[in-house]
Amino acid sequence: MKKLLHITLTFLAFCLISIASLAKSSGYEIKVHIVGLSDTTCYLGNHYGDKQYVKDTVHVDQNGWMTFAGKENLDGGIYLVILPNKTYFEILINDEQKFTVETDTLDYVGHLTVTGSLENRLFNDHQKFLIQKGIENADLKSKLDFYKDNKDSTAAIKKRMADMDKEVKQYRLKLVQDYPNTFMAKIIKTMQEPDVPEAPKDAKGNVIDSMFQFNYFKAHFLDNVDFSDERLLRTPILFNKVKTYTQQLTVPMPDSIIPSVDTIIIKSRANKEVFKYHVASLANYYETSNIMGYDKVFVHISETYYLTDEAYWADSTLKEKIRERVNKIKPNILGTPAYNLVMPDTTYRNYRKLYDIKAKYTVLVFWDPTCSHCKVEVPELHHIYDSLKSKGVSLEVYSVGIESDPELWKKFIKDHNLDWINVSDLYNNTNFRDYYDIYSTPVIYLLDDQKRIIAKRLDPTKVRDFIDRDMKEKK
Description:
13 helices, Immunoglobulin-like, 4-stranded mixed beta sheet, 45% helix
């Protein structure tokens, strides 16, 4: 009897697990009715960071009905119903995967109704509320400009605008309190910004720390962000939060950015997909940025996370590519002493050392006379060189000819009267490419009097501007 009971209970447990699993992966069925649309194609897309991807494609019948359906559940996030004219409206996907949305082409959000999804009702009500407050706020701003010379009117308008901000906060707070376990509540909490207290003052009422409020705001900016919830990746909210933290609340210098990036990535360890996304997206952003010096951040991310066992998604091929890129960048990070070059001049008898140059500024340029950009920029650089020298600027140019016929190189120097230090290493005997990141020409580095790299990848005009600015700052 006991054995039979055990088998029965085991079978029952198995059935319950199977039913639960079936319910969880029973797929999605989203019916959408749009009045004013017929016999066309629409798409279901989803946010992922700052990008959007198409998930499903359906035909719209003559009455404006369409059904997005699939056997597997959709991952939670904010999705987009995309119309033929590329406009769209958003819906929320969580546990409720079978519901109906109805609207029209006159006002997708304002006329939208939802059946069978509490999450989408909350989401849409929130959208409508914000749209209404946005209209009211725009009206107040126009009145503020109209009554700008009337102190009483402007004071009243500003008070109304402040009250409106409070209304929005109270609306969101109530939503979170009334529906704490919904994905919508999670989204609202993620959007929240910290309430900053008054800065501490001394006995005379003077502010002790002028940076207190900014530092407090930044320190608590991520308090309500749940990095363990990968659904937030499929919304634009987490991306914007991280972007604000790393780009607006952080001093735009590599040594300041690195701790902020580490803060994001360390918090992201709470979920492997969130971790993967932030390591990959931040590495890509700082590697490809046009802002000088940001490649130092890429090197840090690569060495700390990619080139270790943490980057579980990175195979040996990817790691090797990243390692090669790091090895190219690391020797010429801003502030790093430039690698000393020793190369022959046009006589091929005299060898000139980069570190023998005694000047406050040294321009190191790599170029090729057959390169179309070099034909324009090298003569322009020489003109700027002459101009700065005539003003008494302590400047020298170490000009390296690469990848060309020696006679063409000499002819170009003669034709353009390049009376600076001209050297060449046409056969890469010095392995200079291992120390200077040269993937196009010309490449221009600016060194200080200690031969530290203070600027790179400049065009000739920026060389002049950077030197002028640096001299003013030092004065």
